[in-house]
C-alpha cells in the first residue's frame, strides 16, 4: 500500500485541522464488493418482480425488507444507523481515509440503485434527488403510507357495500376474495366473521 503525504497548504480539508495532526491519503486496491451485495443487486428484480406503485406499497415494502434482512443490509434502510466517518485517526494522530466508509458508500449506493430499479417510473421523481438508501426508504414511507391508508378505506367501503347483483356466485365470491386480499396486503386483515357478514349482506333476501 502506497502512502502519500498531503500538505496542509494543498488540501482544503487539512487547512483547518490542528497543527499536530498529520493527514495522509492511502492509495489502496479497490474495495471488494461482498458476494451478498452482488447477489442482492443482481437478483432483486427477479426476486421482487413487481414495481412499486401507489397501490402496492405494503406488499413491495415487505418484500424489500425481507430481502435486505436476509442479506444483512436492513441497517441501510434505517436513518438512525450511524454512518462511518470519512476520515479515521490512529494513535499517532495520523488521519487517513476510512476504509469502513468506502465500504459503506459502495454498499449504500448499489443498494439505492437496486431499490430504484424496482420503483415505477411515476414514483421515481419522489426519490431521484436523494443521496442514500435510508432517505429513499423514509421518503417512500412518508409519501406512500398516506396513499395506502386512503386505499384501504376505499377498499373497505367497497367490501361493505358489495352485492351479488347480476354476478354468478363464483364471480361474487372471487370479487370478495380480491378485496379481502388487497386489504390484507395493506396490513389490515379482516376477521373471518366480518368477511362472512359482508358476504351474506350482499346476497338477496
TrEMBL record:
This is Retrotransposon Copia-like N-terminal domain-containing protein.
Amino acid at each position: 500500500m502506497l502512502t502519500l503525504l498531503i500538505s496542509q497548504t494543498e488540501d482544503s480539508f487539512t487547512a483547518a485541522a490542528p497543527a499536530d495532526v498529520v493527514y495522509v491519503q492511502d492509495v489502496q486496491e479497490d474495495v471488494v464488493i461482498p458476494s451478498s451485495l452482488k447477489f442482492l443487486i443482481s437478483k432483486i428484480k427477479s426476486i421482487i418482480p413487481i414495481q412499486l406503485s401507489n397501490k402496492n406499497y405494503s406488499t413491495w415494502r415487505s418484500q424489500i425488507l425481507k430481502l435486505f434482512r436476509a442479506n444483512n443490509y436492513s441497517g441501510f434502510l434505517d436513518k438512525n444507523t450511524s454512518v462511518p466517518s470519512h476520515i479515521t485517526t490512529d494513535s499517532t494522530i495520523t488521519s487517513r481515509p476510512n476504509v469502513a466508509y468506502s465500504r459503506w458508500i459502495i454498499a449504500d449506493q448499489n443498494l439505492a440503485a437496486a431499490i430504484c430499479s424496482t420503483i415505477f417510473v411515476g414514483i421515481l421523481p419522489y426519490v431521484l434527488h436523494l443521496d442514500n438508501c435510508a432517505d429513499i426508504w423514509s421518503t417512500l414511507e412518508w409519501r406512500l403510507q398516506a396513499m395506502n391508508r386512503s386505499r384501504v378505506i376505499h377498499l373497505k367501503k367497497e367490501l361493505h357495500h358489495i352485492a351479488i347483483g347480476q354476478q354468478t356466485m363464483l364471480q361474487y365470491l372471487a370479487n370478495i376474495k380480491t378485496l379481502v386480499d388487497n386489504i390484507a396486503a395493506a396490513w389490515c386483515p379482516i376477521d373471518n366473521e366480518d368477511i362472512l357478514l359482508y358476504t351474506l349482506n350482499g346476497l338477496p333476501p
